[in-house]
Specification:
Elements lengths: L6 E5 L4 E7 L6 E5 L5 E5 L5 E6 L19 E8 L4 E3 L7 E3 L2 H6 L4 H4 L1 E10 L6 H16 L4 E5 L5 H11 E2 L4 E5 L12 H14 L4 E7 L6 E6 L3 E3 L8 E3 L6 E4 L5 E3 L13 H4 L1 E2 L7 E5 L6 H5 L6 E6 L17 H13 L3 E6 L12 H8 L3 E2 L5 H14 L3 H8 L15 H7 L6
Parallel strand pairs: 6-9, 6-10, 10-12, 12-13, 20-21, 21-22, 22-23
Antiparallel strand pairs: 1-2, 1-5, 2-3, 3-4, 7-8, 11-19, 13-14, 14-17, 15-16, 17-18
Helix pairs in contact: 4-10, 10-11
Bound molecules: aspartic acid.
Length: about 450
Amino acid sequence: MPNPGDKVKVILKDRAIEGALIPNEETDSLVIKLKSGYNVGIEKSKVQKIEVLMEHKAKEPVREKPKFKPGLPTISILHTGGTIASKVDYETGGVIARFEPEELLANYPELFKIANIKSRLVSKMFSEDMRFGHYKLMIKAIEDEIKAGADGIILTHGTDTLGYTSAALAFALENLPIPIILVGAQRSSDRGSNDAAMNLICAANFITKTDFAGVAICMHETSEDTSAAILPACKTRKLHTSRRDAFRAVNDTIIAKVDFKTHKVAFVAKGYEKKAAKPDAKKNFAARPNFEEKVAILKCHPNMFPEQFSFFKDYKGLVIEGTGLGQAPTGVPNELCKIHEENFKAIEEVIKSGTVVVMCSQCIFGKVHMHVYSNAINLANIGVIPGEDMLSETAFIKLAWLLGNYNDKDEIKSFMGKNLRGEINERLLLDDANLGRTLPSMKG
Ligand code: ASP
């Protein structure tokens, strides 16, 4: 029997198919990657013979250590996994192998001209599997690298939950003396359309050429390989499943843009965290890595039942993603809505049980105003806290972090409505022109 990756000729009764054998444990078919790039499945019972045309040989990864260059700043690259650290095995077609950090970086020799690069593996995973425990690992690794004298840190990460992690790091790391830039990729690092190279190189240039200190994200600004956007840690969302410019600032502007060719950085945000403003940062830097585990987000939708809310009685915190200005289905305008009385009672019970309940909007843009519609007014009256213009995922991380680090409930509730790390935009204007600038145009 041939091995995955072997070039084979499969002889059937009436024809022969040539291509690379793809591993397939799920079904009882042979899967062959054709020259055209398409895969075909062939029922094993129909195969008369398989000839091996060429055996597949696994390539040895490149592991070269570049020399330390005195005078260059040091960037530590912490790897957590994600598409940026994955590759498609074109010979077998389907296998996603994971790059080792050294192997990944060997693909981007330009990085080593910008800085001395140290690299360290924190985890090898897709970001949809991240848990708060992983944030702790990242925080510990960042602390170690800062102690060891890094001038900046790039954290490579899967794109799916990158925005949650950037918010978690922003809350947990107080008085950061250096930049921590999260970088992901929508296409794996070995593809022609790969976006990792530009994102990594722009992040490294941003770190070495500016006085920024704090957490931010570096991803494609447009779908072209021309510039990267440096995005705010607590106000950025992945707004597209596959586009390379999927990450957009919501209710805020980007911090800066980095030109890929000229390496020039242009700041867009009026104010940003500067190293110069923190002369004692190294001394004052502190990590508070605790996150309360029992916190959740609940999205409102038509036809909700009380048990959907009361489920969270045993939780310490709940972010409700309400409709519009911050409503939940709690009103009884007619008989069909009778059950909404129970929804309201259920939320009240959850609050009475000690859960901190915060309201965000599923609208994405704009802020909640809980004094306009009666449903929201009634919720505010029983203690639901308005989440202002926070993304619900940022509010979720903030709530988990506050509950993990503070004991006083009143203090936690009051912090939820205050801007601590740029998560609430106090300058958010109600004019549409301002919103228009942050609204993405994503037709592709
Ligand atoms: N599912 C992947 C992840 O978030 C997608 C990516 O890396 O871009 O890890």
